[in-house]
């Protein structure tokens, strides 16, 4: 069986994972819920967003745990610039002793919008183009294509420095008076970084900068640096309630 492990906070990676399953079959698993080494799968496809030109913390920490006999394909999605993330992922997997067959990349709508707003027409344009490009990637996955990313100009040290500082973003989050203490942010946080203390939402220092709480708060009550931005993003092609779930509980 094909294992499709995905990490997603706003639905882009889940959308990709579901499209892959629709054409290749397999089992979709939300990566933070997975504690195995992929030895139960004949093939593993990792679907991940790009964070700071590299892999999110959960994906990064998965690699050393994988069975060395596993055949791995990676499908990355990025909003702004890919940088050298595909090459970094390839090299890191090899360092971990993983047979990495291919690393694909696909542009999706940007969700790291704490300090800027992406025009809606641009978002729609990307969403319109994505299915065709994704279909082409899936065709290569189906054929077992080998794709080794070329070396780029972005330095790996930049990504590693950014990754080491992701947790600092939490100190700039706050919940406004619009918060109803519904607890949704607590449930969806992949690093258990949010809690309720003395009747208030509190952010700890284990943030992985996924922004799931920011984008998916029903009241838009979570703000960054007290900026009263109203725009949020959730991939319109998936059911928001499915983000963070897998085939066992979707």
Cα distance, first to last residue? 19 Å
What are the low-pLDDT stretches, counting only 5+ consecutive residues below 50? Answer: none
Spatial order of the strands forming the largest sheet: 2-1-3-4-5
Largest sheet: 5 strands, parallel
Bin the strand percentage. 15-25%
Helix content: 25-40%
Gyration radius, rounded: 18 Å
Total beta strands: 9
Description of the molecule:
This protein has seven helices and nine strands; from the N terminus they run βαββαβαβααβαββαβ. It has 250 residues and is α/β, with parallel strands linked by helices. It has a five-stranded parallel sheet, sandwiched between helices. Helix 2 links the parallel strand 3 and strand 4 (71-78). Helix 1 (12-24) packs parallel to helix 4 (120-142).
Identify the notable features of this structure and list them briefly.
7 helices; 19% strand; two-stranded antiparallel sheet; 250 residues; 9 strands; alpha/beta; five-stranded parallel β-sheet
Please outline what is shown here.
This protein is of the alpha/beta class.
List the helices and strands and how they pair.
Layout: E1 2-6, H1 12-24, E2 27-30, E3 43-49, H2 57-62, E4 71-78, H3 85-95, E5 99-107, H4 120-142, H5 156-165, E6 173-175, H6 184-188, E7 194-197, E8 200-203, H7 212-216, E9 222-224
Parallel strand pairs: 1-2, 1-3, 3-4, 4-5
Antiparallel strand pairs: 6-9, 7-8
Helix pairs in contact: 1-4
